[in-house]
Amino acid sequence: MSLLVKIARMYHEQGVRQPEIADRLHISQSRVSRFLKEAVALGIVRTVVVPPPGVHPDVEDSVRDGYGLSDVVIAHTSDTDETSLLSALGSAGAAYLETTLTGSERIGLSSWSATLIATVDAMTPRNARTAAQVIQLLGGVGDPRVQVQANRLADRLAVVTGADPVFFPAPGFVRTQAARDAILDDPSIQAITEQWSELSMVLVGIGSMQPSTLLRDSGNAVPPDMLEELRGGGAVGDVCLRFFDADGATVSSDLNDRVLGISVEQLKAVPRRVGIAGGPRKYEAIRAALRGGWVDVLITDLATAEHLAADL
C-alpha cells in the first residue's frame, strides 16, 4: 500500500513521468501503470492523493529530498521497544525487496545485522527468481556458536530470491594489515572480492558505536579500546566496519587496513545502496550515513524519519 501511494503522488502531484518513476523505484514501467490504475480503483487517487493510515509520504519525501536519496520507506510501528522496532523494520524491508528486485540483481550483503536477519526472515519465497546472486561483503567467520547467523542470512536471502549464494570465508577483521593482505592474496578469496565491483545493489545495516548483541557475540565486534580510539577520532557509526564521523566522512584508523570486507570506494560505487536501521540508539549513525552518501535508500521508523526531517 505504501508503494502504491508513493507512485500515485509522484505521478499525479509531482508530475513525474512513468518511465522516470520506474527508474527511480527500480520496477518496470508496466508495474507503474498497473499501480496507477489500482490507485484509482481503490479511491486513493481522486483530485488529491489520500494516504491511508500508517503511510507517511510527506515525511518520506522530506527526508528523501533533504538528504539527496533515491527513496525512503517508513516502517509503521506504534511501539518503541527494540523488539517491535526490529519486527517493523524487517517487515518494511521485506516488502521493499519483494517489490523492487528485478531478477537480475547481484546483491551485496553485510554479514552481522539483526535488522537484515529480520528483513530476510519476513520475506516469502517466490516461484520466479528475483535475484541472480547474493554475495557477502564482510567476513562472516567468528564464534562458531553464532557464525551460523551470518551464513544463514546470506543463505536465506538466496533461498527466498532464488539467487546463488557466495560466502566470504574470512573473519571480519584481523590483528595486522599483513595478515589481511595474506588472506586477500589467496586466489579463492580474490575470486569473491572481484565480484564486489559487479554488484547492482547492497543491503546493509547501519551500526552505532554500541555493537549489537549479534555482532558482539560473533567475535567480530571491535574491541572496547579500539572503539574508544575511533570515538576519539569522531566516529559515530559504521557500515560494514567502515567507520565515519557525524558528517559521514571516513574516520582514519589502522582498523581500515585490517578489515576483510568491501572498501569504502567499492561500496559507494554500487548503484543502489539500501540501508535498514532505526531507533534512537542509531539515530546519529543513520544521519551521518545519509550525509556521507553511504546509502541512497533508507528504510527506517517514523520517529527517526521525523527527527531526520527536523534536522535538515
UniProtKB/TrEMBL annotation:
<dbReference type="InterPro" id="IPR037171">
    <property type="entry name" value="NagB/RpiA_transferase-like"/>
</dbReference>
<dbReference type="Pfam" id="PF04198">
    <property type="entry name" value="Sugar-bind"/>
</dbReference>
<protein>
    <submittedName>
        <fullName>Sugar-binding transcriptional regulator</fullName>
    </submittedName>
</protein>
<keyword id="KW-0804">Transcription</keyword>
<keyword id="KW-0238">DNA-binding</keyword>
<dbReference type="InterPro" id="IPR051054">
    <property type="entry name" value="SorC_transcr_regulators"/>
</dbReference>
<comment type="similarity">
    <text>Belongs to the SorC transcriptional regulatory family.</text>
</comment>
<dbReference type="GO" id="GO:0003677">
    <property type="term" value="F:DNA binding"/>
</dbReference>
<keyword id="KW-0805">Transcription regulation</keyword>
<feature type="domain" description="Sugar-binding">
    <location>
        <begin position="58"/>
        <end position="308"/>
    </location>
</feature>
<dbReference type="InterPro" id="IPR007324">
    <property type="entry name" value="Sugar-bd_dom_put"/>
</dbReference>
<dbReference type="GO" id="GO:0030246">
    <property type="term" value="F:carbohydrate binding"/>
</dbReference>
